[in-house]
Amino acid sequence: MIPASFDYVRPESVDEALEALTDAGEDAKIIAGGQSLMPLLRMRLAMPDTLIDLDRLDSLRDVRDDGDAIVIGALATHHRVLRDPLVRAHAPLLVRATAKVADPAVRHRGTFGGALAHADPASDLPAVAVALDAELLARSARGERRIPAADFFVDWMTSALEPDELLTGIRVPKPGEGWGVHYEKFHRTAQAWAIVGVACAVRRDDGRVGDARVALTNMGPVPVRCRAVEEALAGGAAIRDAAELAAEGTEPPSDLDGSAEYRTHLAAVLTARALAAAAAV
Amino acid sequence: MTEVGSPRLRSEDARLVTGRTRWTDNMTPAGTLHVAYLRSPIAHARITRVDTEPAKGRPGVVAVLSGADLADEQGSLPCAWVVTEDMRLPEHPPMAVDEVRYVGEPVACVVARDPYAAVDALEEIDVDYEPLPAVVDMEAALEEGADLVHEGLGTNSSYTWVFENGDVDAALRDAPVLIERRYVQQRLIPTAMEPRSVLCVPEGDEFTLYSSTQIPHILRLMLATVTGVPEHRLRVVAPDVGGGFGSKLQVYGEEVIALLLARRLGRPVKWTESRSEGNMTVHHGRDQIQRLTLAAERDGRLRGIKVELLADMGAYLMLVTPGIPLLGAFMYSGVYKMDAYSLTCTGVFTTKMPTDAYRGAGRPEATFAIERLMDELAAELDLDPVEVRRRNWIRHEEFPYDTVAGLTYDSGDYESATERALELFAYDKLRAEQADRRERRDPVQLGIGVSVFTEMCGLAPSRVLGSLSYGAGGWEHASVRVLPSGKVEVVTGTSPHGQGHETAWAQITADRLGVPFEDVRVLHGDTAVSHKGMDTYGSRSLAVGGVALYSACEKVVDKARKVAAHLLEASEQDLEFSGGRFSVRGVEQEGRTIQEVATAAFAAHDLPDGVEPSLDSDATFDPENFSFPHGTHLCAAEVDTETGMVRLRSYVALDDVGKVVNPVIVEGQVHGGLAQGIAQALFEEAVYDAEGNLTTTTMADYLIPTAADLPEFVTERTETPATTNPLGVKGVGEAGTIASTPAVVNAIVDALRPYGVRDVPMPCTPERVWRALRDESPPDLAEPGAGGGLGSAGGAR
Predict the structure, then answer these.
(1) CB < 8 Å from B in window 4-33 of A
(2) By CA distance, what is B764's nearest residue in A?
(3) Chain B residues closer than 8 Å to A47 by CB
(4) Which of these, B75, B104, B585, B690, is most buried using a 10 Å CB contact count?
């Protein structure tokens, strides 16, 4: 469990980091908290030529108010996210899901931005970003762009970031009043990844669920937004009936934790539970 | 005089939990070379070419060796348990030469100046494999014309071992009730916290080998036998060792090769495994298929049991591989009376990592079988599972009791243990809640699992081991020396790797000699210090080694009495020994402390005739019988019928381990044992795919529970002393593991019985529970014609 050798760069600023990225080319990897990348390096599943360590980029750790949204620095640790007053006030779903990420040790090292850039569909936070219509802020020497979460996750462990781009922050819209949220994580042990996870936010409207945003963890190569469920609810369907549509359009994997068939079943059951829990708030 | 029984915190823990100690990997003598192994990526293949040349040119590399390079000196790894005269025992080279037979088998190694260089150079070794068929399914492996693991043997069967007592065929014939089941004991990976590590330091023609092992004494003998290094030129040290669970009761190829490399290169060599390397190549546990038939009367009384076992040996027979299932052979009757029993066990070769001892070693499998069957019998007869056990168990007044499996249980009180367990568990209240949930058709159903168990511990009477063709005895040794200053050194032949012997042995010694606990030091795990011993496994250390220590203490006191009598000019018979002081009966002020006696014995200026200088002693203990801890475990499980998720709600472990030396240590053993036994029921499984690839090589795939995944354990004890040793102790290392697996599965099946579920294969993953529910119709609860019943997928909530 010893990584293959690599060049190591530790930039002092975002500009230096972007320069390093441009210089290193395609075979560079960025390391932040290292909670996902380190095991891959040690097992030699990842063998980059250059490792760019963002540890010194303190400017990317903060959370700030941006009017109709909050912007969370890509290097904010899960621990920071859990405690930040702005996040707690405006992104309670993110708080709920982050509390379910791995264990306290991981949450103290791992970062929100890293968890998204890693683009692991079994990880909890990509589905949350998709459910919340977050935008991911990418910078390169060429400039900055905003990538909607729905477009950011391209394939299994593959994001829309270009090789010279750095994820600097995540812009999460403020939801407004009246939303209830829930993250339902179904896993075999406390530290295990979700077999299926459901992130949802709902707004009660005249005693019934009107607006809803639902996204699934680990039901395909990328997090899945459950538009069918959302539309059914908007059309007045009961939670249980709407939830039956949860697995529509998904491509769930089969692995040691569960078959695709089982995941399809779970998606409906867990979506119903998540919606009920969110609606009860 | 109350050290024994007092809940002392363990004196060794500060260094163990901080890691500031002599773990093998913490030691790197000057000039140490580091070893890394290239391992087979294929389950079964002929090796046609190994090119080590490119790797030899890498920076920092000192040597690169293939199996062929070591073929003349590496010998064959030992199997010390030839269970039948015609057992097939294939050669097992530490590093593969012509053929690989499991994924992870060592093929070549690099020796380099640092571990990084060694691992990097592995990528430069080129091996050509000619694939052969993988053999992964035991039942298929025994069919006519099956692909063979060892071509030369002509069969995949290693042995068939048979035990019979009473007329099983008659017991089964016309039996009013027959329960027939097939249970699979899945393959497990022991997962000790400290990975394996070995360091061999040469000094001239002598060698010191440090290894993270449970068995320094046995390892020395075996290494000497395999390599030809004379036993007296080889010192084996088990420094602090971070867990084993049986997995370090082994002679590993990496240990043999460390010695060969140190001999060849004349420098210290070290190897430490990675976790994924360990998952592949630490011997695995369990992996049996059990075909069981239990015969009973309609009132629930047992007639007999027939057991047909297939036991997966893996690719080779390691130290005690073939004997493990046979340790269970004596436990299939459990705590029950019956007249007939037969067991047939066939050891089967497959292209997988060999199996061997894992916490409980044969006994968990047997206990699972009988305790699951007792629940099935209760269901069949519509009896409470506790009641069906009560009708069959050995009553306390019937001990000593000769079981149908050929053991003599010396003592036990299953009635008291069970009664107390039921009370602690609030059994009746939970049954009422269960009835209520069934009535309400709650999607989350409640199940109650019962497990009444005993186990044979204190391995082992040497004559019994001899009768089973085991390669060694089962005695244990201890010596005690009271130093001139009055401090005490204890040397034990046991080899703790987490059990807390340093604390418990000091407690026993402090009481026997009347010295302060702090004045006792316990030495172990070094063949140069502990010159004889049989090491630690099979819940034997206290029941055998602790008793040897007790005897050694008694001998010291006897010798001290002679010296004290001489110094006090009194007769030995007139001396009292109390609180560490000898005094003349009736003249209390006249006395000598044992420390004063030690000083006098050291000076030797004035010793009685025939008494040798120095206050010390040696003792060995060879038990006449095993010890038989027992207990009653009860588990309440909530089963979500919509998702299949199992949540353990409460767990009561009522154990009887005889006299307790240190209740904190006993508690810790029970908690850890429960975690491992529950893990077999719910979480752990080593999975090989059809090509023989291990798919659970990391802890992301091989799930072990943490505290967050387990319920709070309610533990209590009854105390029925063992009658076969003077301490009255029985052993506690494996009890929790043995008892808990069937308790949990019984609870799950109990929850789902109204749905027609009779079994869920282990580990009872959510999907397996869900499938068990789907495969069965819900006869008791489903409303005819109604959709969305409890048993259907996606039911109402």
Answers:
(1) 4-5
(2) A188
(3) none
(4) B104
pLDDT interval class at B588 (50, 70, 90): confident
| Residues B306, B294: Cα–Cα separation, whole Å | 7
Q: Which CATH number fits domain A7-53: 3.30.43.10, 3.40.50.720, 3.40.50.620, 3.10.310.10?
A: 3.30.43.10
| Structure confidence by residue, pLDDT tens digits, B534-552 | 999 999 999 999 999 999 9
Q: Which two tokens stand for residue B139?
A: 């039942």
Residue among A2, A43, A272 whose CB faces B116 most closely: A2
Q: Which of B617, B619, B618, B621 is nearest to B476 (CA)?
A: B621
CATH code of the region B285-458+625-775:
3.30.365.10
Type of residue at B745: V
On whether the CB atoms of residues B292 and B184 are closer than 8 A, the answer is no
Chain B: closest CA distance from residue A59 (Å): 33
Distance from CA of B113 to the nearest CA of A (A): 15
- Using the beta-carbon criterion (under 8 Å), do A258 and B701 form an inter-chain contact? no
Instruction: Give, in words, the CATH class of A61-171.
Output: alpha beta
pLDDT at B784: 35
Domain locations in chain B as residue ranges: 13-132+193-243+248-281, 285-458+625-775, 475-621
Chain A residues with CB under 8 Å of B704 CB are 189
Give ipTM to 2 decimals. 0.96
Residue of chain A whose alpha carbon sits nearest to that of B768 = A258
The alpha-carbon gap from A62 to the nearest alpha carbon of chain B, in Å, equals 31
The residue written with tokens 């760069």 in the block is A9
| Shortest CA distance from B702: residue in chain A | A256
A174 in contact with B, Cβ within 8 Å: no
Among B114, B189, B767, pick the best mutation site for testing chain A contact (most A Cβ within 10 A): B767
Q: What residue of A is the nearest CA neighbor of B708?
A: A190
Burial class (CB in 10 A: 0-12, 13-18, 19+), A179: middle
Identify any residues that bridge with B620 across adjacent strands, giving them in sequence order.
Answer: B477
In Å, the largest CA–CA distance within chain A is 61
How high is the mean pLDDT of chain A?
A: 96
* Mean pLDDT computed over B493-505: 97
Q: Round to whole Å and give the CA distance between B564 and B121.
A: 67
Q: List A residues 262-281 in contact with B (Cβ-Cβ < 8 A).
A: 262, 265-266, 268-270, 272-273, 276
Q: Which CATH class is domain B475-621?
A: alpha beta
CA of A274 vs chain B CAs: smallest distance (Å): 12
Query: Nearest CA of chain A to the CA of B274: how many Å?
Result: 6
Q: Dihedrals φ, ψ of A276, to 5°?
A: -65, -40
Whether residue B515 contacts residue B486, with contact meaning beta carbons closer than 8 Å, is answered with yes
CATH architecture of structural domain B13-132+193-243+248-281: Alpha-Beta Complex (3.90)
Contacts of B706 in chain A (CB under 8 A): 189-191
Name the residue facing B276 among A1, A266, A273 (closest C-beta): A1
Q: Give mean pLDDT, residues B613-630.
A: 97
Given pLDDT bands bounded at 50, 70 and 90, which one contains residue B778?
Answer: very low
Q: What is the pLDDT of residue B796?
A: 30
pLDDT, one tens digit per residue, over A101-128 is: 999 999 999 999 999 999 999 999 999 9
- Nearest CB among B275, B683, B687 relative to A188 is that of B683
For residues B142 and B140, what is the distance between their CA atoms, to the nearest angstrom?
5
- 10-residue mean pLDDT profile of chain A (281 residues): values are 92 97 92 96 94 97 97 98 98 98 96 98 98 98 97 97 97 94 96 96 83 97 97 94 96 95 98 95 51
Mean of pLDDT values over B277-281: 97
Eight-state DSSP code of residue B542: I
Residue of B nearest to A268 (CA): B794
Among all chains, which residue has been given the structure tokens 């069969």?
A: B155
How do residues B315-342 score in pLDDT, each as one tens digit? 999 999 999 999 999 999 999 999 999 9
